[in-house]
Amino acid sequence: MTSIGERLARKEDPRLLRGLGRFGDDQDRPGQLWMRVVRSPLAHGRLVSISKPEGAHVITAEDVPPGVRIPVRLKVQGIDLDDHLQPVLAADEVRYVGEPVAVVLADDPYEAEDLAELVQVDIEELPVTVDTADGTQAAEFELGYGDVEAAFGEAGHVVRIEFEVGRHSAVPLEPRALLADVDPASGALQIFGMTKVPVFNRDVLATMLGIDENLIHVHAMDAGGGFGVRGEFYPEDFLVPWLAWTLRRPVKWVEDRAEHLVAVNHSRQQKHVISAAFDNEGTLLGLKDDVLHDNGAYARTHGIIVPELTLAMLPGPYRVPAFHGRVRVMLTNKTPCGTYRAPGRFEGTSVREQLLDVAADQLGIDRVELRRKNLLTADELPHTRAMSTLGTDVVLDSGDYPGLLDKAMVEADRLGYLSRLESLRAQGHAAGLGVAMFLEKSGLGPQETADVTVSTSGAVRVHSGGTSLGQGIETILAQVTADALDIDPAVVTVINGDTVLQPFGGGSWASRSTVVGGSAVHRAAVAVRERAVRMASRMLEVAEEDLEIKAGMIGVRGAPGSSVSYADVAKACRPGSPYLGPDEPAGLTARRRFEVEHMTYPYGVHVALVDVDTGTGHVEVLRYLVAYEVGRAINPTLVEGQLLGGVAQGVGGALLEEFRYDEAGQPQAVTFMDYLMPTAAEVPRIDVLVAQDAPAPGNPLGVKGAGEGGLTAAGAVIAGAIRDALGLTGSVGRLPMTAERVRGLIEEGT
Amino acid sequence: MVKYDIPSSSERSEDKDTEWSVVKPAAFTYHRAYDVNDTIAQLAELGPDAKILAGGQSLVAMMNFRLARPSALVDITRIGGLDFLAKDAGGLRIGALTRHRTVETTKVDGFEVLSKAARWIGHYPIRCRGTFGGSIAHGDSTAEWCLLTVLLEAWIVLQGPRGRREVPATEFFHGFFMTAAEPDEMIVEVRFPRPAPHAALTEFSQRQGDFAVVAASARLDLAENEILTSRIVLGGVGPQPAVVDVDLAGQPANEETWRAAGEAAAAQVDPPSDGHGSGAYRKKLTATLVARALAEAAA
Questions:
Q1: Same domain membership, residue A703 and residue A606
Q2: What is the extent of the structural domain holding A611?
Q3: Do A297 and A258 have their domain in common?
Q4: Do A340 and A323 lie in a common domain?
Q5: What does the DSSP 8-state code read for residue A315?
Q6: Is A327 found in the same domain as A188?
Q7: Do A505 and A497 touch, CB atoms closer than 8 A?
């Protein structure tokens, strides 16, 4: 019996669909105080004074421990960002609209909001920097390998484009929420609402508060989407627990949507100047990219990993003999930036694939053929690039890139994409097809830890370090456990993200939960199985080699009726059991760690069919195909769900979503009337082809992460399709391709 | 450690249960009115900062952002007899409390443009709650009903402490969210004097259901393929619905006429720029949408 590969219904759904999920705002404590954040109304200025309304409890930077700044979670390339870290409350200077300058506490959220409005913040205005190029340079670094200058020197053709990606980000359905309370019995700070990396956040908070990490208990919660932004350590993640700890009162804070749009990490904003060198046959000789990265006002927890990933992943699935990338990370008076699902890859893939489309036209080669010609073949893998990212070497592990491209094109044709394109064009429509190929990364280590325990009823509990962000990880880990133990997944309960139950968890991010978390669970479950067999051999008085496990029963091979269940074994593991050795620990349980040095690299193809209204510039995405290699799909339905959601977000970033600022640094998209998330009407019909042709060699399950591949090439493929529809010779230049920009391209052409 | 003068949890947990206020607007008082005279009396008493609450689809959102801060709301949704479409001496009267959805689902001969245009208004839940009179009172320059009252030269019927009066729609909209209605007056109905069998409204927004970046409406009187009279009204190009000075009388009803009229309309407007579109883009949209509205009106 194997549960892996089954389309098991989600274990989370019975609670989530009946409204029984436990989200951030669902927690309350008697006597709790409500926190409201007072945010800077100006983009840059010297903080002169903060007036506290009569009777209001207002906390400013003067009240918080001095020098508390939010640390970088992932330090890479040896770059020190200490001068650019965000304070938890602005002390002397405000640097973006929305920066926390004070908090107000009240017994009621409404009262807190009213009082916060009465707090007068006097700011002496300073010059505002909105344009990335005018910003303060926080970091500059280069990545690459091979002799790029020689490659360009001998090139028959050099193709160069400029391309900008607009500032946008994740907007989870549930805004952030936190509740912190000190348990009088244990003396420990109880925190509800931290997701993604609870163990890391616990440790950061323990350092900031100067207390032992075991005095902080972050509880498992449901979350209405994460996508990179939720669960990072923000100013509020210090303020709420600190106030609860200091005041010995429960403190609750719930972010509203208007706050969310200026407070959580923005992402994506980059400007690229990219060139490729080809020989006369269209073979890639080298690639060069110069990137200006807008990081907003501070370096937050992600430090410079988005620009780093941009460069490290830029060569993608192609055979690029020489590569050089340079990035300058600039600080501007805008909301600070971090990761958003497919960080660096959405940006880099958009730019690279547009470059290849332009190159194909200039070289007179079909764009699919140009890609096929330059893709690394299965024989060339594993392929090492002399670069590092996220502290790991870039080793493309396994795959058949041209094979998947061919599969995707056959599938698109079979689904009628090409005939629809022809018939639309015959009717005079400006219709176009986009094709984009991409490389993803997943399964970042360095480790994940899991505990698997069988109770005396036969129920199995898994304590994993992942977090439930809505992605279905509880179901996946239950399937992995059930597979290893040969039991029904229905008896498995998975608890994620509780720092007491799993104090060594790494969290859910970077498409790592199934790969790294799943492998840890697999190892722990295998250890439990081995122990169960050992115990059963004592119970049944037969050698371990003579035992087999079938449907949850451990029995003597060839002797039906002579068997014990996991429940029986768990009972035999209780203290006082005659089957336990003198120093043998009680319980049928195991904690195991999975460590991995390298990431595993999924890859995929997006194909999109668009119809452009030349009168208004409106782009309708008619059909959309994602072909994605995941090594092994633990639950194909959940893989497909991940891809569909990714496409929806990608359509937003490609066509609609942008955080614009005016010259004074005032954000122009602070409501859903101005920040245009795609709705059901804008999301196309999506076809999905999940490939399992290239298992990952680096983990026992053979899995590659599925979290991001629906989004990665969405900007690229839609930009390519629009370019095709309009018959442009150059690049579309910029994302998002708003109707106004498309209408402009129709007029001007390129 | 910082000390604050905050009551300890044991002191306060007695006097308050865990019911929190989950509202967002600045403080206001709420009043309900049961007939039109009652509304007018309450508005007079509450002063000029009081507002009428009908469907609440624009006002409540603005209050939640604290962009609108009325001192008081007078809820008129329980007033009977103001939810109707009635044929009247060749024309049509629509009661102020008629929901958009009712207009959308009621076909009235000669006024098909109203039910067709209703589908452009927001989303289904918004259309089920928002009211005809509320949209006119709000006076958004891109609102479908504001455009169509001007296009069809309707009359806005107001009632106040000084009695009842009718204001032509062409004089009703004074600029961004400003109208001819006095603070103590209430819109009771809108009167369309004559049918417009050849009329259409079309608009563009990036997402379905959003406010129009530009909306164009057109009305024609046709004899065979010749245009007898024409009227074009635009939204999203200025602070109020804009009547375009293009007379198509005597011209043939064909694509070339529509295209040229679109160009002429675009040449007349000087739209503002904002996050949803530059003035230049709005001019291009004007040309496209006027031509499309005319073609649809003639069809």
A1: yes
A2: 270-443+598-748
A3: no
A4: yes
A5: T
A6: no
A7: yes
Written as six digits, the tokens of B206 are 């990036």
Q: What is the pLDDT of residue B12?
A: 40
**Position A674 pLDDT exceeds 90:** yes
Q: If contacts are CB pairs under 8 Å, which of residues 671-730 in chain A contact chain B? A: 671, 673-674, 676, 678-679, 681-682
Question: Residues A500, A410: one domain?
Answer: no
- Rounded to a whole number of angstroms, the distance from the CA of A107 to the nearest CA of chain B is 9
Residues A553-601: tens digit of each pLDDT: 999 999 988 999 999 999 999 999 999 999 999 999 999 999 998 999 9
- Of the candidates B204, B275, B278, the beta carbon closest to that of A618 is on B204
**Same domain assignment for residues A319 and A349:** yes
B284 vs A contacts (CB less than 8 Å): 743, 747
Percent of chain A with pLDDT over 70: 100
CA nearest to B214 within chain A: A616
Report chain A's mean pLDDT, rounded to a whole number: 96
Task: Pick left, alpha or beta for residue A652 (phi over 0 → left; psi -120 to 50 → alpha; otherwise beta).
Answer: alpha
Q: Does one domain contain both A578 and A616? A: no
Spell out which residues of chain A touch residue B276, defining contact as CB-CB under 8 Å. 674
Whether chain A has a CB inside 8 Å of the CB on B111: the answer is no
Q: Could B206 and A656 be called an inter-chain contact, meaning their C-beta atoms sit closer than 8 Å?
A: yes
Radius of gyration from C-alpha coordinates of chain A: 27
Whether residue B131 contacts residue B99, with contact meaning beta carbons closer than 8 Å, is answered with: yes
Question: Residues of B with CB below 8 A from A210's CB?
Answer: none
Within 8 A of A108 by CB-CB distance, chain B residues are 20-21
Q: What is the pLDDT of residue B14?
A: 41
CATH number of the structural domain spanning residue A80? 3.90.1170.50
- This complex has an ipTM of 0.93
pLDDT score of A200: 95
- Residue A172 makes CB contacts below 8 A (sequence gap 6+) with A223, A224, A225, A226, A227, A229, A230
Q: Are residues A589 and A609 in the same domain?
A: no
Encode B204-239: b = buried (16+ Cβ within 10 Å), e = exposed. Answer: bbbeeebbbbbbbbbbbeeeeeebeebbbbbbbbbe
Domains and CATH numbers, chain B: 25-75 (3.30.43.10), 85-192 (3.30.465.10), 199-298 (3.30.390.50)
Contacts of B292 in chain A (CB under 8 A): 615
CA separation, residue A680 to residues B163, B208, B209 (Å): 47, 9, 11
Q: Which residues of A touch B275 (CB under 8 A)?
A: 660, 668-669, 674
Instruction: Determine, for residues B65 and A671 on separate chains, whether the beta-carbon distance falls below 8 Å.
Output: yes
Number of domains in chain A: 3
CATH code of residue A680: 3.30.365.10
Instruction: State mean pLDDT over A469-476.
Output: 95
| pLDDT tens by residue, B166-200 | 999 999 999 988 999 999 999 999 999 999 999 99
Q: Note whether A31 contacts B9, CB cutoff 8 Å.
A: yes
- Nearest-CB residue to B281 (from A671, A673, A740): A740
In a domain, A237, yes or no: yes
- Please report, for residues A293, A437, A656, B244, the alpha-carbon distance to residue A627 in angstroms, rounded to integers and kept in the order given: 30, 9, 24, 51
Q: Do B284 and A114 touch (CB under 8 A)?
A: no
Cβ(A39)–Cβ(A116) under 8 Å? no
Give tens-digit pLDDT for A181-192: 999 999 999 999
Does residue B22 belong to the interface with chain A, where contact is any CB pair within 8 Å? yes
